[in-house]
Amino acid sequence: MTDDRAPSAPAADGFPPTPGSLDPEALRRRALDALLTARARTATLTDSVEDGELTAQHSPLMSPLVWDLAHIGNQEEQWLLRAVGGRQALRPEIDGLYDAFEHPRSARPSLPLLAPAEARTYASDVRGRALDILEAAPLHEGGRPLERAGFAFGMIAQHEQQHDETMLITHQLRSGPAALTAPAPPDPTDAGSLPGEVLVPAGPFTMGTSAEPWALDNERPAHRREVAAFHLDTSPVTCGAYQRFMADGGYTDPRWWAPEGWDMVREHGLTAPLFWHRDAGQWLRRRFGVTEPVPEDEPVLHVSWYEADAYARWAGRRLPTESEWEKAARHDPATGRSLRYPWGDTDPTPEHANLGQRHLRPARAGAYPAGRAPSGAGQLIGDVWEWTSSDFLPYPGFVAFPYREYSDVFFGPGHKVLRGGSFAVDQVACRGTFRNWDLPVRRQIFSGFRTARDA
Q: Which of 52, 145, 302, 358 has the smallest number of CB atoms closer than 10 Å to its CB?
């Protein structure tokens, strides 16, 4: 998903109402926790390297880390201090520097950006004022659209966590020794007994949401979708399975590739996922500054949509549609309801999913049995973003809110939808309805996939 979330004038009030039973004080506590969690993670990502690495551009695909840091503060100032709080602008002169639509990532190092210490002070100053506004903001039903159910505060927490994910991608792209560490995720307990695929029966289900208070505009509104029966992989495709595709000439046979994907393979000489290399007859990968053997039972990571699509064709299968993915993840046939998460309506815990940068890698296929959906599919939330076959398009009745540049300008055949989140995603920016999107060539993102077939 692009991290370039620059605001324009707020859209008209097309934001759907939230349930009247939501407790404003509970929402206030939730917003406070989400904002503090995001800021603690931002500090981890930016305090773990020297200032020279904050100002350097580690890849033309990504911004310097210091740009992300000040951009986080600038977005928070524009939406929480100015739009919600009605405060006078603190640093209006820097709005243009941190407008992501005005400056592509490759050009950002040449801008007169705030230095690391100044960026930290600015973001901290904004945050202190934002928390004062949160303490007094009316979050009740019927209030102003940005304040209703704490939406603006949830939006900013999600925005910061999305930038934390892009900063983690930058950490993966940087050279040199590891700056971040984390324990390994838990091992699966019953992976050997899991079926390779699950059957999702035909029928309608409710896709999207009109009730989730912090759902973003592209997740709305809830609507019925009819889905034909299909089979879906129980777990994401593993590195070991992907190596069989490679060993069978997957990167040298144009039969499996979309024309644009085959052009990409030839132009860049692709032979494996990003960050993999062959040494002494063994596949190794670089992961956050550490070189290690590729684990065969871990979901494959850092593959483009074209690579995922080619693997699926080689396997005699296909990528699931976005509707299929969401039905497998949310539909409960026992009640006919669509759940908030595969396991139910409760927020994620460490037993449900690999989220929040607790681990710096996906868990092995078959992990997190408590997080499985009624369909029987697992690891649908966390671990790896999963490419689908679908273009990023609006739902029927879509209304841009609070600004067009969040979703509306990205709709069309140029971007493919990813679902489910990765180990790099925080729970505030990941739910059963959350939609991610990116260009089909992208490989630096924490992307994997699972495959499907018609029933």
A: 52
